[in-house]
UniProtKB/TrEMBL annotation:
Gene Ontology biological process terms, A to Z: 1,6-anhydro-N-acetyl-beta-muramic acid catabolic process; amino sugar metabolic process; peptidoglycan turnover
EC number: 2.7.1.170
This protein's name: Anhydro-N-acetylmuramic acid kinase
Similarity-based family: Belongs to the anhydro-N-acetylmuramic acid kinase family.
Pfam families: AnmK
Taxonomy of the source species: Bacteria, Bacillati, Bacillota, Bacilli, Bacillales
Annotated ATP binding sites: G17, T18, S19, L20, D21, G22, V23, D24
Gene: anmK
Record-linked PANTHER family: ANHYDRO-N-ACETYLMURAMIC ACID KINASE
Amino acid sequence: MLGSRQSSNLVVGLMSGTSLDGVDVAVVEIKDQMDTLDFKLLHFTSLSYSQTIRDKISTICNPKTASIEEISSMNMYLGKLFADASLKAIQEAGLSSKQISLISSHGQTIFHQPEPKMIAGSEVTSTLQIGDIGMIAEKTGIMTIGDFRTRDMAAGGQGAPLVPYTDYKLFRKEEHGRVLVNIGGISNVTILPKGCTETNVLAYDTGPGNMIIDAFTSWATNHTQNYDKNGDIAAKGKVNEDWLSQLLDHPYFQLAAPKSTGRELFGEAFAKRLWQEGERYQMNHTDKITTITALTAKTIAMEINKFIKSANLKEVFISGGGRYNKTLMRFIANYLSLDVSVYGIEEIGMSADAKEAISFAILGYQCYKQRTNNLPAATGANNEVIMGKIAW
Ligand SMILES: Nc1ncnc2c1ncn2[C@@H]1O[C@H](COP(=O)(O)OP(=O)(O)OP(=O)(O)O)[C@@H](O)[C@H]1O
Ligand SMILES: CC(=O)N[C@H]1[C@@H]2OC[C@@H](O2)[C@@H](O)[C@@H]1O[C@H](C)C(=O)O
């Protein structure tokens, strides 16, 4: 039985995020004692998607170009790819499949609609993560858990963000407040006030993370670069303050929490519109990238600044690929009040790259243990639920 022996608590967590860069795989030992959870990262690896796969996923993320046939086949294709990635990681960790209790897979989000649509007089919210868990279980021989977000939505939540549950379990502090920021395709913050309980954690998506920076870099470099490595391009440009303040008027930044977002709002169409706006401002490509980097930084910092006093915030820890963008990190620190210090999340023993995959390992483990694993304060759900479905 899971949990009865130390060796049986080995879990593989899989995360494929909104950047569409690939799948992250964390092999984690989960230490489950009384009501505290802890983990040890045994191995971490990422499998990059080929350009063909990125393009295919991009196509099915866009309702105008998606076809049901492509969605259906990509669901099975990604399931197989996730299975292969899991087996590779298990082998690299020096383990065998038999030692793994479960695989927990977030899946690839291709659609996320937290604002209700009317269908035959009923309000419907929806979210879709693909990468079939039946396929993963079949190809690995390991029980697989996935499809977390729908259950939270069924309980009236946004189905996102889900990682704040593990942020709360692992990183809350009695002495002072902390903020965890993940900068992937989209950015999200988890605010853990001093001595917080589950009910007063604040967590939501702040808006774009690297998504627009990546798109701009690709266009500015004639597709020779997918992202602004280390923020080197942004470091060379100037922020256009006029344009930045206009960009900050976007309605998403004014929305009250709980809120979550994705490619539907800040994807390619949005990036294209901003790129054209930048042209109208007669800005060079470098200044456009610098200004868009400042937009990500400012929308994160503005949210944190709101809670510095009330939550007694002292430390901000940054994870996700954006942690490596030095210009973005510098801008965030500059936009924040001097009361808080900004660190990479490795400062508290967590890997910036593996954090989300580790979190999904923990969320899946909790599901298997039949424990609730959503944080209604973050998602807006009416009640706690056990998120996740199991393929035996
Ligand atoms: N060295 C680096 N310098 C600058 N940016 C980087 C670097 N390494 C990664 N990134 C950025 O991080 C992005 C990937 O981040 P990450 O893997 O955290 O996103 P994700 O998990 O796909 O997204 P999300 O968390 O929104 O689902 C890349 O697209 C790139 O923009
Ligand atoms: C619908 C969806 O896939 N949302 C992702 C996305 O990527 C970042 C942000 O938007 C967050 O809401 C979420 O992922 C993280 C892992 C979460 O649920 O905490």
